[in-house]
Write a structure and sequence with these properties.
Chains A, B: GO terms for molecular function: histidinol dehydrogenase activity; NAD binding; zinc ion binding. Chains A, B: InterPro entries: Ald_DH/histidinol_DH, Histidinol_DH_CS, Histidinol_DH_monofunct, Hstdl_DH. Two copies of one chain form a homodimer. With about 425 residues, chain A is α/β, with parallel strands linked by helices. Chain A is about 45% helix and about 15% strand. Chain A contains 17 helices and 15 strands. A six-stranded parallel beta sheet of chain A has the order 1-12-11-10-13-14, sandwiched between helices. A six-stranded mixed beta sheet of chain A has the order 2-7-6-5-8-9, sandwiched between helices. In chain A, strand 8 (about 215), helix 9 (about 220-230) and strand 9 form a beta-alpha-beta unit. The first copy, chain A, is globular and about 85 Å long.
Chain lengths: ~425, ~425
């Protein structure tokens, strides 16, 4: 049987703050060797383009090609994948895509402008990015749901070209991933990966077009490369391990909650699953369910390690205390498995996604509820948001002064500019003041 | 007389693309000594808190204090500054603040949710950050306008506590900066600066509260520190040199345009000023104005260096070609000094702020038009936006499944999760499916 230890905390214990800090502590270790390797790859791709991409693809993925063009996947091949996968998978992908598209359309932002009393026009022009790059991991962690979640918001935003890269180590192609690309409307696909693919998207090569922003998950090399090219292009967040926090009033079937915790823990050994409840008895029941169900899980080893290292069952006085602890954690996923989630949600200030009520398994949100599954991790929900259409739109301020407005506000600008010692600013404004 | 050379380009020349790339090339040089110094300071502040802040403040700013509390500026002192500055400055700051507040209120985003046919609730909850940190440079580049532009959007967003830090090298306090803080509603002010202030805001000390996001400009030490703490807290952009691109049809007074170019060039030697016009004759006129006006400028040396190194006058066939080049540059500031800016703006896809018409001097936007003056530089307007209220709000997805919805979508999630080999996900969803 798989061995597991399950940490217990109580908000009433004297050292609770310290214990909670220790539980949450997770540091993105900077690996200097990885940094050096990634810088070398990026420099090569930047200066030598396609040739470097081909060399690294042969070296790391054991895929050799005469040109990067050979590594492009045609739209016909994407359609072929769509027709080849099992019918229930295709149907599920299409249903998920429809719901994701429907939700994200509500995030679209529009340009606006208004005119003040002087006839001065002020506004904000909202435009899509020209091109977005989507990194999709290959090999065993190939997730078609990620293709939908990253590509659909970009297309909804109006991005003209979504360029996807996906490595095919040893030539292994995942048809479900290609089918998802077809459904999401991805414009071009290259079977390249790693830091070399990030470099190709950031700098452009003769074959791969330079994009404006790179999104999507990847291993440490991909994450490091994204961090390096940030500024040349935009990037989405650099994700830490996935986390779930469940607040339960003690009345949800404990097997359900145990499985919800597992669904996070099965991602990887660093994933974090926390349950908070005012009922110690209920925490005991969930612990029993964990021990009962664990041996039945396909990924029992990963789950056991993750639970033993990073999980906790936390006893609190009441649901308000649970909400306060949740705000301290700012979890990626927050399940409110309680009778009245509507009331509790009022007390929640920080969370990537909030799952209301006993029927709302977090896993539904991962695939097909509609909202994005790319969410801020490691407490960054304190200041950041789920991936959305807004990540693929940007704003330009619009200012149009009438002669009257320039006269009136030029005087204000002049005083402030001279106060800051910037006289060219002052004189530029003063030219537009009417002589009196 | 101040010497200046003025670069001329023509979009018709054979090597125009290369020449333009060379003109725009600007690389944020990574300075390893600065990196090391900043990492040391951050580590000290993180581990030793107030004591380290006091040591570095004494070392770098020649300000010694017995405690960090002594370095806090009281609200009474801010009010005192407001009453002490010249009446026209106070009035100008208040007028600017009113316009900035009015514009930014239109950026506020609201929560929304909707219910689908199955009774499933989906939505987006929008909340402000708890605390924001605002870095304000001290010494000679002390800009009260920056205080307004950074603090007002945070307060409009509903941030409960805005904590400002401003170094006072050798104890020199800028009353106009403190007055701006009073007008903007800054909650607390500490006279600390450099990497130590960034560290104090990011990690918190006994005296300085930890914030969720740090915004505001600073020197290379401050910028490097912000880059380092990114992830622990949010940060705004890391700004490159300021730039202006003016598109003129040749009918604006050439002195006005020369002064607009100067208003950018006077910031620093790296600032970039570019003028594009279909009229070669007009470019000659502006060049003559530049040579005529330069000797009359207070900051003539900085302007001459900036113009000689980084400015250009570019001749194009027509305004559409100007717009295409502008989209390639994605300028921070774009002046459309033409007869029909409304028509030209349709062709503009990327710019931080767009100034429409001959009366709209960019300098008006720096101070009091209303929109923010913190804008994406170095071509990053391709994928990023002006600082705004949205930088101080974040979103949480809301998902609430009805029993019926969980039954229907649980089946979809189950197929997709099993397709990805994530069976805990599948089983968690399947628990919520009604047995048939």
């Amino acid at each position: 049987m798989t061995d597991v230890t399950i940490k217990r905390l109580s908000a009433a214990q004297a050292d609770f703050d310290t214990a909670l800090s220790t539980l949450l502590a997770w540091e993105d270790s900077v690996d200097h060797q990885v940094n050096e390797a990634v810088r070398h790859i990026l420099h090569q791709v930047r200066t030598r383009g396609d040739a470097a991409v081909l060399e690294f693809t042969e070296k790391f993925d054991q895929v050799s090609a005469a040109s990067v063009a050979e590594l492009e996947v045609s739209q016909a091949r994407l359609q072929e994948a769509l027709e080849r996968i099992p019918r229930d998978q295709r149907r599920a992908l299409e249903q998920a895509a429809d719901r994701i598209r429907d939700y994200h359309q509500r995030q679209l932002q529009n340009s606006w402008q208004y005119e003040d009393a002087d006839g001065t026009v002020l506004g904000q022009k909202v435009t899509p990015l020209d091109r977005a790059g989507l990194y999709v991991p290959g090999g065993k962690a190939a997730y078609p749901s990620s293709v939908l979640m990253n590509a659909i918001p970009a297309k909804v935003a109006g991005v003209s070209e979504v360029i996807m890269v996906v490595p095919t180590p040893a030539g292994v192609v995942n048809d479900m991933v290609l089918a998802a690309a077809a459904i999401a409307g991805v414009d071009r696909v290259f079977t390249i990966g790693g830091a070399q693919a990030v470099g190709a998207l950031a700098y452009g090569t003769d074959t791969v077009p330079a994009v404006d922003k790179i999104v999507g998950p990847g291993n440490i090399y991909v994450a490091t490369a994204k961090r390096e090219v940030f500024g040349v292009v935009g990037i989405d967040m650099i994700a830490g391990p996935s986390e779930i926090l469940v607040i339960c009033d003690g009345k949800t079937d404990p097997d359900w909650i145990a499985m919800d915790l597992f669904s996070q823990a099965e991602h990887d050994e660093q994933a974090q699953s926390i349950l908070i409840s005012p009922s110690r008895d209920y925490l005991d029941q969930v612990e029993a369910s964990i021990r009962k169900l664990l041996p039945t899980m396909e990924r029992a080893d990963i789950i056991a390690t993750s639970i033993s290292n990073r999980a906790a069952l936390i006893e609190v006085a009441d649901l308000s205390e649970a909400a306060a602890i949740s705000n301290r954690i700012a979890p990626e996923h927050l399940e409110l498995s309680v009778e009245d989630p509507e009331a509790l949600i009022e007390e929640i200030r920080h969370a990537g996604a909030i799952f209301k009520g006993r029927y709302t398994a977090e896993a539904l949100g991962d695939y097909c509820a509609g909202p994005n599954h790319v969410l801020p991790t490691s407490g960054t929900a304190r200041f950041s948001s789920p991936l959305g259409v807004y990540d693929f739109q940007k704003r330009s301020s619009i200012i149009g002064f009438s002669a009257k407005g320039a006269d009136r506000m030029g005087r204000v600008a002049s005083v402030l500019a001279r106060g800051e010692g910037l006289t060219a600013h002052a004189r530029s404004a003063e030219y537009r003041i009417k002589e009196s």
